[in-house]
Each structure stands twice: as structure tokens, then as C-alpha cells.
Design brief:
The chain has 385 residues and is mainly beta. Helices cover 4% and strands 49% of the residues. The chain has a domain of 267 residues: YVTN repeat-like/Quinoprotein amine dehydrogenase (Methylamine Dehydrogenase, Chain H, 7 Propeller).
Length: 385
């Protein structure tokens, strides 16, 4: 019998909790790390930063940073937290690579392992499957997807698949060709979804981790979004029944019923508080309890939109907007407990920490923020130490 996605998540949480509480670990404590990816203006620099989060006050303390790395603009962690992967050499003409690092949760230090070219320009998003055997990147400028096998030591092999698209859509300035903006696994990891901003499509692949070419076009290879909408990031509800995709060019969030690789639209709702000449939805996340959805808005508003989720229907209701206290909130993250929401304001060079009210979903500034040059991606994980 297949376990439901919610039951799998619950089991993983219980196993993690028991690991921290097991006899051999009772003397250890938990440390929550914040990992920050940045743009380095196209030059090798200290591009990835690690901070520890004080879970009582919301304050951040620097632990370590990388050296001699170029534009690590998007980062992600392996499922077990022992490795970090970064999109590197982004926004550099005819370039783009993925870099791998090992991470020591005791010291908070990480070490470079290796780097592989994507053969697709400007990788902007990466994801790993649950066994850490495959890494997949969305290459924005060239409109392609690269698939990398991963060795047991966390190092990357050369890509085994490079899937190219050439579609376009109605916005001549932004949609002249395909622009893959994210790659996200379905709850059971049997499908991969890839919003294509340039083609107004959410592309759908089947995924088979045992196949040397694990991505294949689904029988329904894409879902067509509204013309000119520019789908960017997609996320799935913890119960596995709903998906939500923000649309960079339209400023909307679209809600879908989800089942067996199929998306069925149920709602389209504005993320911005007011009408804009141009929109710039960026990131989207759901609270750990599944009750609230958050979407970031760049351009003039520089805000986080808060929606409540009707878990019986998947429909969204606008709850409020919160200024990010900075410019261009490209990315944000909710800490594993759901207590804090942290925002990376790329153009004002700050990462801001907000308290999250679990009952209302609303955000309140904690008074804590750090200065980081051009922060573009945030990831968090709690470790037993």
C-alpha cells in the first residue's frame, strides 16, 4: 500500500525528532542554519554565506562563507543536509555551471567538491531527488533543463540529459524564447514540473530515478497558462492535493488541483495590492502547517503577500501584505518550525527576519536584519549537534 504524502512527511519528522532525542544524542542541541546565495557582480568573490539563527530571538550570527565563487545565485541542500549545491556563473554570457560542496554541520564550514557545466546559459534553480542521486537545473536564458547524476560522495557527474525548448509567447521583451525558471518535484517524486516563463507553460516530465535518462515527457507534456502570464515558481501543498504557481509577468498566483501529474486550475488571484505597469512576482512558499501561502512581489511594492488556504478546497483568501523593508525581494524562506519568515532583498543588500503568527499568518518585523551583498536565495535547515 502506498503511503500518502502527508504520512511520509510525518514519519520523516518523527524520525528526525527521535534522532535528536535518542540516548546518544541527548546531550546534543539543535542548530538552525541559514544558507545565503548571492550575485557577485560576475566576479569571483565570497558568494555563499552561512549564519546560525537564534530561534528564541530571531537574531542571526555569521558562521562561515565561501571564497572565489562567481554568482552562486541559487542554492539548495541535499535531503540529508550534508551537501550544498549552487547555480554558479549565472548571468554570464555563454556560461553556467553547478557547483557542489560538502557541509559540516558541527563546525558550520563547507568545502568545495567539484563543478560541472550545465551547457545551458544562466541556471537559476536546482532541485535534488530524495535519494540524492540526481540533480536537475532550470537554465533560464537558454530555455533548457540539465540532469546530473550524483556520486555517493556528493560530487557531480557530467549531465546525462540536456532537454532544450524553443517556444515563445506574446510578450516580445520577455517571452522571445523559452525561459525555464524552476524545476520542482511532485509530492511523490514521480513527476517533475518546470514553469517556463517564456512560453507560458508549466512543463511536465515523468521521473524514474533508476533510468539513466530519468526525465521523459509526460503523456500531457505541459499545462498552458494564460498568455503573457509568465509562470515562475511552483509549490505543492503538504497534503499533496494542490499546487500553486506565481506568475512573474501578470502579478497573479494560480491555484490548481493536483493528481497523478495533472494540474486542474481552480483559482487565479492577484498577488500585488494594486495595479502596476509592470509586475515581478518572485518566490512562493507554504507554511509548514499548510494553512498559509506567501508570495513575494518586486518592482514597486517590495512586499510579501499572505493568503490563507482553505485546506478542504485549496482556494486562497487574501489576508494581507507586508513590506519586506528592502528592495527587490527575490527570495524568502520559512524556518523549519514555521516561527520565522526571512526575506532576501537583493537590491537593498539586506536579509530581514519576520515573526510569523501561526494563527493569522501575518508577519511582524523582529528588529533583526543582516547586511549581505546582493542576496538572491535563502535556504534553512535544523541540525542536531
Amino acid at each position: 500500500m502506498k503511503l500518502t504524502h502527508s504520512l511520509v512527511l510525518l514519519m520523516c519528522f518523527l524520525l528526525s525528532f527521535q534522532a535528536c532525542k535518542s540516548p546518544e544524542n541527548r546531550s546534543q542541541h539543535k542548530t538552525t542554519y541559514l544558507f545565503i546565495g548571492t550575485y557577485t557582480s560576475g566576479n569571483p568573490s565570497d558568494g555563499i554565506y552561512v549564519y546560525s539563527l537564534n530561534t528564541l530571538s530571531g537574531s542571526l550570527s555569521k558562521v562561515s562563507n565561501s571564497h572565489n565563487i562567481t554568482n552562486p545565485s541559487y542554492i539548495t541542500l541535499s535531503p540529508d543536509g550534508t551537501h550544498l549545491y549552487a547555480c554558479t556563473e549565472t548571468r554570464i554570457h555563454n556560461a553556467g555551471s553547478i557547483s557542489s560542496f560538502s557541509f559540516d554541520s558541527i563546525s558550520g564550514q563547507f568545502s568545495f567538491i567539484n563543478k560541472q557545466p550545465t551547457d545551458g546559459e544562466n541556471p537559476v534553480y536546482i532541485t535534488l531527488n530524495k535519494t540524492s542521486k540526481w540533480l536537475i537545473s532550470a537554465n533560464y536564458t537558454s530555455g533548457s533543463v540539465s540532469v546530473f547524476p550524483i556520486y555517493p560522495d556528493g560530487s557531480l557527474q557530467p549531465h546525462s540529459q540536456l532537454i532544450q525548448f524553443t517556444d515563445s509567447s506574446i510578450n516580445e521583451d520577455r517571452q522571445d524564447s523559452a525561459h525555464l525558471h524552476s524545476v520542482v518535484f511532485s509530492p511523490n517524486q514521480d513527476y517533475l514540473f518546470a514553469p517556463d516563463l517564456g512560453a507560458d507553460k508549466i512543463r511536465v516530465f515523468t521521473f524514474d530515478s533508476l533510468n539513466s535518462k530519468p526525465l521523459q515527457a509526460s503523456t500531457s507534456p505541459f499545462f498552458k497558462t494564460n498568455p503573457g502570464s509568465g509562470p515562475r515558481h511552483i509549490t505543492f501543498h503538504p497534503d499533496g492535493r494542490y499546487a500553486y504557481c506565481n506568475e512573474e509577468l501578470s502579478g497573479n498566483v494560480s491555484a490548481y488541483n493536483y493528481q497523478n501529474g495533472q494540474l486542474s486550475p481552480i483559482q487565479r488571484i492577484a498577488s500585488y495590492a494594486g495595479k502596476q505597469n509592470e509586475y515581478g512576482c518572485a518566490d512562493i512558499h507554504i507554511s509548514p502547517d499548510g494553512r498559509f501561502l506567501y508570495s513575494s512581489n518586486r518592482e514597486d511594492e517590495h512586499s510579501i503577500t499572505i493568503f490563507s488556504i482553505d485546506t478542504s478546497t485549496g482556494l486562497l483568501t487574501l489576508t494581507g501584505h507586508q513590506s519586506t523593508l528592502g528592495l527587490h525581494p527575490r527570495n524568502f524562506v520559512i524556518d523549519p518550525t514555521g516561527k520565522y519568515l526571512l526575506v532576501a532583498n537583493q537590491f537593498s543588500n539586506n536579509v530581514v527576519v519576520f515573526n510569523r503568527d501561526a494563527s493569522t499568518g501575518l508577519l511582524k518585523y523582529t528588529g533583526n536584519q543582516i547586511i549581505i551583498p546582493n542576496p538572491s536565495c535563502l535556504q534553512m535547515r535544523t541540525y542536531c549537534k
